[in-house]
From TrEMBL, chains A, B:
Top-level lineage group: Bacteria
TM segment ranges: none
Stated name of the protein: MarR family transcriptional regulator
Leader sequence residues: none
HTH marR-type domain sequence ranges: 20-155
Record bears the keyword DNA-binding: yes
Record key words, sorted: DNA-binding, Transcription, Transcription regulation
InterPro entries: HTH_MarR-typ, MarR/SlyA-like, Tscrpt_reg_MarR-type_CS, WH-like_DNA-bd_sf, WH_DNA-bd_sf
DNA sequence: AGCTTACGTCAGTGTTGTTGACATTCCAAT
DNA sequence: ATTGGAATGTCAACAACACTGACGTAAGCT
């Protein structure tokens, strides 16, 4: 087994949790857990001819109603063309409403329709159910650690977006 | 704000960490963190004309040298056609070697070549670096919680695969 | 001999992402 | 008032990565 060479001679703190093997287990845990994380919504979506991209759009529009396309673009980290394709179908299907901005008429503000909210509800119910089970199994302390590690893993820009959404939801 | 209706009257334990808002923050944390998780390898891969699928294959072949195609299929959770496309390019490019099984000649055992190991090293160095920073920022207790929640989030089948890899690496 | 398993491949399709190019609309500055 | 830039939208082409379905080959099992 290889080692980073940083595990020895660092005083009382063993830092055993930073060995390459521990890090690799963390990487694999992320990989397998993300599969579970998306599995339930994915099943619902394939029945509805939608994909994960539609879920993400619906999720964040619900989370921040009236958000602009540009704002959504930054949160989702995709190109406007990619997002536009998804939004177009959602608007055409009557799940999302796009209203021209009042102060800046170039901007489009996005809202879920009743039907859109119904889908969001259905998807997030499924996803929250899994998250709830996992949180309950692991316990409150583990949940705190989970959140701290994930936050530290984000790119700074995403960490800011995440913090903004957190404030908004509280 | 909606509520699950499970937050009240449960005695001393408040279960505040299981509110819909907390769960939604967990969901968003997973989304943003996974982006960071894959960002560094993705950057390396695009330069090399490879994708995330190649990374996953190389990772697990390195992790379990001599693994069969079928075993890899189960771990990655994709179709054989999808995996085969990736394996074909990796073998053609001399990163992976496919050896016919000794006892069962139908099976192909997969190994990384020196060149394959070099790529795996490069990719996992980048990914481990981010994981290491995140782990160090969050601290050992948080890392334990992180791992417990992720494990609880996996599908049972993936939890078994994860456990098998853990034993193997120890 | 017949069935199953493991693997590979061909063909077609769908989702999601990417560039690049171009039009429109609007705000803001000269 | 015109010019420049930002925000949005659209079209086209393309690539990665997943899927299904069908077919073939070789090997193993009963």
């Amino acid at each position: 087994m290889r080692d980073t060479g940083m595990g020895a001679g660092l005083g009382g703190e063993s830092l055993l949790f930073l060995t390459d093997e521990q890090l690799r287990q963390g990487i694999e845990a992320m990989f397998f857990a993300y599969r579970g994380f998306t599995a339930d919504p994915d099943r619902i979506l394939t029945d509805l001819e939608y994909g994960r991209a539609h879920h993400r759009a619906v999720h964040f529009i619900n989370r921040a109603p009236g958000t602009t396309v540009n704002n959504l673009l930054n949160i989702l980290g995709v190109t406007k063309q990619s997002l536009n394709r998804v939004l177009r179908t959602l608007i055409a299907d009557g799940l999302v409403e796009s209203r021209i901005g009042h102060s800046d008429k170039r901007e489009r503000h996005l809202y879920l329709t009743d039907e859109g909210r119904a889908l969001e509800q259905k998807l997030s119910d499924a996803q929250r159910a899994r998250m709830r089970t996992a949180f309950r199994e692991a316990g409150p302390d583990a949940v705190g650690g989970f959140r701290r590690v994930l936050e530290a893993m984000m790119d700074p820009e995403m960490r800011r977006a995440y913090a903004r959404l957190k404030e908004q939801g509280a």
